[in-house]
Amino acid sequence: MGSWNDSPPCYAAEKGLESEYQNLSSELLTQIRLALLYSLSMSGKIKKFRTIAKKITIVLLKLRHLSMLLRNLLMFQLNISLQNLYSPFV
């Protein structure tokens, strides 16, 4: 671990840029905090999106199942109709 005099604040002080270093450091910290808040906010939105996507998937699966049932019902009715057409004496 280094000492204070080999750190960036020391180097800035030696070059007479202490106030600029403090301003930039403060701005960097602000931007890091904003990025963290944004990522947390997006994390919540992603969770909501996943929940909605799961619900949509469930609805689509139910619709697929319903369409298969309807198709089978129509095929069954068509078979009954064809049987009645070709065997009128049943």
Supply database-style keywords.
mainly alpha, rod-shaped, 0% strand, 84% helix, 90 residues
Summary?
By secondary structure, the protein is an all-alpha fold.
Please characterize this protein's 3D structure.
The protein has helices spanning 8-14, 18-86. The chain is mostly helical and 90 residues long. The model has no long low-confidence stretch (mean pLDDT 83).
What order do the helices and strands come in, and which of them pair?
Blueprint: H1 8-14, H2 18-86
The low-confidence parts are none
Helix content: over 70%
Strand content: under 5%
Number of helices: 2
Order of helices and strands: HH
Radius of gyration: 35 Å
Q: Quick one: how many beta strands?
A: 0
The overall average pLDDT, rounded, is: 83
Q: Based on Cα principal axes, name the global outline.
A: rod-shaped
Distance between the ends: 98 Å
